[in-house]
Design a protein that fits this description.
The complex is a heterotrimer. By secondary structure, chain A is of the alpha+beta class. Chain A has eleven helices and ten strands. Chain A is globular, with a radius of gyration of 21 Å. Chain B is built from eight helices and 18 strands. In chain C, helix 2 packs across helix 5 and helix 3 crosses helix 4. The longest helix of chain C is centred in the N-terminal third of the chain and has 17 residues. In chain C, strands 9-8-7-10-6-1-4-5-11 form a nine-stranded mixed beta sheet, with helices on both faces. Classes of the chains: A alpha+beta, B alpha/beta, C alpha/beta. Chains in contact: A-C, B-C. The interface between A and C is medium-sized, with 18 and 15 residues.
Chain lengths: ~400, ~350, ~260
């Protein structure tokens, strides 16, 4: 067991940190305030290979592992959680399923431009009536044998990178099967859908509490025709694909939550060293010291869980046929890191006092940003279900 | 040849367009002081084309002798012919000490010459003394007297080091402009000129000058200013420097700036104060919207009076300021300008 | 074209300077970085590589730990790396350093050598020109722009109030100013590749045509007599007023008191 990062990961962290501090941090307030998608920084990250970190070089990626990718999301989220989730949604939810399930043609056509940074990706599963409960999905794809196309109808909501993406992974049901007990159950399939496909339009943009710069949109499909070759993985296996994709996504979100918590902790440490009350630095009060100790310990624990889950996924990636599962590790990392993010940012705001409530000091943004990590890509309750299901199986 | 056979304090008399640079006179002042301790003479080495006329000015500022290397190849500064000229003078006349200005020219010429004559060179000195090396006698090591002890900042101005060159001659240093004091001019002094030409045959090291472009903007020498009104990143924009221009105007001062301002393109590089800019020691230095990074402080901390205006009460500039005012420069500076104008009018 | 960029690992003096209790610099506690001017020089070399095609080799002299800056340089796009390290080379001043690096460079074919103008730990700006002198090639220091035309480099070189555009035949040495351009970032994949590559390590025995008398601490003509933490003038008064008027009156009062106005 080795708790020491090797040199290439140390250097990768330095790169992400430098980029985050230099390019991302100065924009963070504006991105939040104006709900502004950070296009310039996304373009820079695309150029630098940040959008294809765990993808093999032959597919236009950087040939690094999941840990490197998680560290990238972590460092970006320390200064701007919006920027962190853009990378996470793109990599975990769009690049990863194509890398895992795509045909050679799909990899050539979609994975390469996504990983090399020419195109941005998104993923659509959630619908107004289907969040945690996937069976509620109403979006339907019907195969038209005459044209060899699937005809997609329905809508997806709360989609990260919504209007900014070029390529979308869309989950729709393609069949309603009846099981042995006579219960009806939808069978899902996954599709690669390009922006600009006739019948694919955007609905309203969501006005959110946090991660306000990520472009969150409703996607609408009306008789949208998808060529059969854009079916991702086998027909009817869409649910498994979505679940596997979310397992990976949770590592990205866990890294985002970790980054938010670290960012808030760093700012708090700086602040309590300077701010004086009753003639003393507030860092000299034992309450502050104990709070900080608790925050730091939880952040450290979250980091270990996140890195462990990332390492497990790397193991899977190195040998996909091994059947290695990282589902529980990812769920634990996300559950814990998200709750730590919420706790640490809330404490940070409290330690900042009145200033903590002021936008300029940024910890209130971190608190708002942290909340979503307990909700998206599986709520904390879903993570508990995943973890306990494994315990009781 | 024995080290004792190297004699005299020499300075490189820098000239550009046949005008002697201020550093030449500053070096002479310092050389004069060192020569008095060593009981020796001060020699200026003047290199250029048609520069002989400048020799008397060097005498006025303390040169006992002036060695003139005059050749058409030396019309514009180029590393090779100038290095050949100075290295040849050193080999021929064997100075004990050779001082060069730490100017863009001197910092190019110095290293090349020191490598050619195989001696050490201490860069960017801010203080020179004659003393013993090692400073205190150490067992088993000879303590040499009458050594040039060269003091210079290092680590971005965080530390200072004193360097000696005990076993090689000449002892070479480049000296920061604006630090050493000129002597009072010796009226009507005439130079004792020695002409020397080692011969100049172009070789592979002679580079060709394709173009010389002088900055069209009238440059001001911030090192000569008695009052500097210096602005930093906190000024906010190139346009906002108008506030500083106005303040400088009423005080008959000059505007300078920090590196951040140059990096942002608000002001030209020749107005930059600090480690990578210029060292200044005006009578009054206003630091306005300057946080006071150590690299900046290294270039201005010798100022007589430092007045800082900054909205960040933790800005390190307040650690060196004689008078620090925490506040918004956009409000204070215009009113300060008006108040000074009023005070001067009432006089 | 073959370009060698000489780089140095230095403690980061910007912002986070750490002192020991006894007032000496705590190098161990400070981040070790690639010297900024050297990084600008590397960027210039990589730009030339992008533009004209070139093989870029980075070379450093230092402790084994300096391997890090070589990897960083390769992660930015350099093709090969050489680390010159040996106990006998320690404590070198600029003369001994330039002698050592010249000794290493004699083993390599090069058209252009680029060094940074100066390192932020020493600020001497000497090693570049001295290497050129040892190798007998022309030097152009303080380059703001580098172009290549056939066998020649065209360099824009800044002086106080002017710039010269200079043309030199290669092989030659150019020292780079940070004005040459903002260095590019590494790429994540570049970092992994850099660690998969071999760094050539040379010791004293690999240096060509150098005399032991000119190496390391012993071979350094300059000797440190004394090094100390800089004594600074202490802080003066710091005032915070509620109104601009009070602030202005305070400054005007001080200027009058000191007979400035």
């Amino acid at each position: 067991m080795d708790f020491q990062l090797d040199k290439q990961h140390e250097m990768a962290r330095r790169l992400f940190k430098e980029f985050a501090e230099t390019e991302v941090k100065p924009m963070a307030i504006e991105v939040d305030e104006n709900e502004q998608f950070p296009s310039e920084n996304v373009a820079k990250m695309q150029k630098l290979g940040f959008m294809g970190i765990p993808v093999p070089k032959e597919f236009g990626g950087q040939g690094c592992d999941t840990l490197t990718y998680a560290m990238c999301v972590e460092e970006l989220s320390k200064v701007c959680a919006t920027t962190g989730v853009i990378v996470s949604a793109h990599t975990s939810l769009c690049v990863d399923p194509i890398m895992t399930y795509g045909t050679p043609e799909q990899k050539e056509k979609y994975l390469k431009p996504l990983a090399s940074g020419e195109k941005l990706g998104a993923f659509g599963l959630t619908e107004p009536g289907a969040g945690t409960d996937a069976q509620g999905v109403q979006t339907r794809a019907v195969f038209d044998a005459e044209t060899n196309e699937y005809v997609l109808n329905g809508s997806k909501c709360f989609i990260t990178n919504g209007k900014e993406a070029d390529v979308y992974i869309i989950i729709a049901y393609t069949e309603i099967a009846t099981d042995a007990k006579g219960r009806k159950k939808k069978k899902f399939s996954a599709f690669i859908v390009e922006k600009g496909t006739p019948g694919f339009t955007f609905g309203t943009k969501e006005n959110k509490m946090g991660i306000r710069g990520s472009s969150t949109y409703e996607l609408i499909f009306q008789d949208c025709r998808i060529p059969k070759e854009n079916l991702l993985g086998p027909a009817g296996k869409g649910f498994a694909i979505a679940m596997h994709t979310l397992d990976g996504g949770r590592i990205g979100i866990a890294a985002q939550a970790l980054g938010i918590a670290e960012g808030a902790l760093e700012r708090t440490i700086e602040y309590v060293k300077e701010r004086k009350q009753f003639g003393k630095r507030i860092g000299d009060f034992q309450n502050t010291q104990f709070q900080l100790a608790e925050m730091a310990t939880k952040v450290e624990a979250a980091q270990l869980l996140v890195y462990k889950a990332a390492a497990k996924k790397s193991e899977f990636q190195a040998n996909p046929k091994s059947g290695i599962s990282y589902s529980v590790e990812a769920a634990q990392a996300k559950l814990f890191a998200a709750e730590v993010a919420m706790e640490v940012t809330t404490k940070a705001v409290q330690l900042f006092g009145g200033y903590g409530y002021i936008r300029e000091y940024e910890v209130e943004r971190m608190m708002r940003d942290a909340k979503i990590t307990e909700i998206y890509e599986g709520t904390s309750e879903v993570q508990r279900m995943v973890i306990s299901a494994n315990l009781l199986k | 040849m024995a080290l004792e056979d190297y004699k005299g304090v020499y300075i490189y008399a820098e000239q550009v367009d046949n005008v002697l640079s201020n550093i030449s006179f500053e070096l002479l002042g310092e050389a004069k002081r060192l020569a008095a301790v060593l009981n020796t003479e001060v020699t200026a080495v003047l290199i250029g084309s048609n520069v002989k006329d400048l020799a008397d000015q060097l005498a006025v500022y303390g040169a006992d002798k002036v060695i003139v290397v005059d050749d058409p190849e030396l019309k514009e500064y180029r590393t090779e012919p100038y290095a050949h000229a100075l290295a040849s003078v050193i080999n021929e006349y064997k100075p004990d000490i050779m001082l060069v200005g730490a100017t863009p020219i001197g910092r190019d010429l110095g290293p090349t010459v020191s490598a050619r004559v195989a001696t050490g060179l201490t860069a960017d000195c801010t203080q020179l003394e004659i003393g013993k090396f090692p400073l205190v006698a150490l067992p088993g090591q000879e303590q040499k007297d009458n050594q040039l002890l060269m003091t210079r900042p290092a680590f971005g101005g965080n530390t200072i080091a004193t360097i000696a060159c005990p076993n090689n001659r000449p002892q070479m240093a480049t000296v920061r402009p604006g630090v050493m004091q000129k002597i009072d001019p010796i009226k009507d002094a005439k130079a004792n000129v020695i002409e020397f030409n080692p011969g100049f045959t172009p070789n592979n090291k002679y580079v060709e000058i394709l173009e010389i472009v002088k900055n069209t903007v009238q440059t001001v020498d911030i090192q000569q200013a008695k009052i500097l009104v210096s602005g930093g990143r906190g000024v906010g924009s190139a346009e906002n420097f108008k506030l500083l221009d106005d303040l400088a105007a009423v005080l008959n001062g000059t505007v300078s700036c920090s590196r951040a301002v140059v990096d942002s393109g608000w002001k030209p590089k020749d107005l930059q104060v600090g480690q990578t800019g210029k060292t200044v020691r005006p009578h009054v230095y206003f630091a306005i919207g300057i946080s006071g990074a150590i690299q900046h402080v290294a270039g201005m901390e010798e100022s007589d009076i430092i007045i800082a205006i900054n909205k960040d009460e933790n800005a390190p500039i307040f650690d060196v300021a004689d008078y620090g005012v925490v506040g918004d420069l956009n409000k204070i500076v215009p009113e300060l300008t008006a108040a000074i104008k009023k005070a001067l009018a009432e006089k | 074209m073959r370009i060698v960029v000489c780089i140095k690992q230095v403690p980061d003096t910007k912002g986070g300077v750490v002192f020991n209790a006894d007032g000496t610099l705590n190098r161990g506690a400070m981040l070790a970085i690639m010297n900024p001017d050297d990084k600008a020089g590397l960027e210039a070399a990589l730009k030339l590589k992008d533009q004209y095609g070139a093989e870029v080799t980075v070379l450093t002299m230092g402790l084994p730990k300096a391997d890090e800056v070589l990897r960083e340089a390769m992660a930015m796009g350099a093709d090969n790396a050489i680390l010159v390290t040996d106990r006998v080379l320690g404590g070198a001043d600029t003369w001994a350093t330039s002698t050592t690096i010249a000794g290493a460079l004699r083993n390599i074919d090069y058209d252009l050598i680029i060094t940074g103008r100066q390192a932020i730990d020493g600020d001497t700006a000497q090693v570049g020109p001295q290497i050129a002198e040892h190798l007998g090639v022309p030097v152009i220091s303080y380059a703001e722009d580098i172009k290549v035309e056939g066998d020649y480099v065209i360099v824009k070189r800044q002086y106080d109030d002017r710039y010269h555009t200079l043309k030199a035949k290669m092989p030659c040495l150019v020292t780079a100013l940070s004005e040459l351009g903002t260095p590019r970032y590494m790429t994540p994949g570049g970092i992994f590749d850099a660690y998969a590559k071999e760094v050539t390590v040379w010791g004293r025995a690999d240096l060509k045509d150098v005399d032991d008398a000119n190496l390391g601490l012993k071979g350094s003509p300059t000797k440190i007599a004394k090094a100390s933490d800089k004594v600074r003038k202490g802080a003066g008064e710091k005032v915070v007023f509620d109104t601009t008027e009070e602030s202005v009156n305070y400054i005007v009062g001080k200027l009058a008191e000191k007979h400035v106005i």
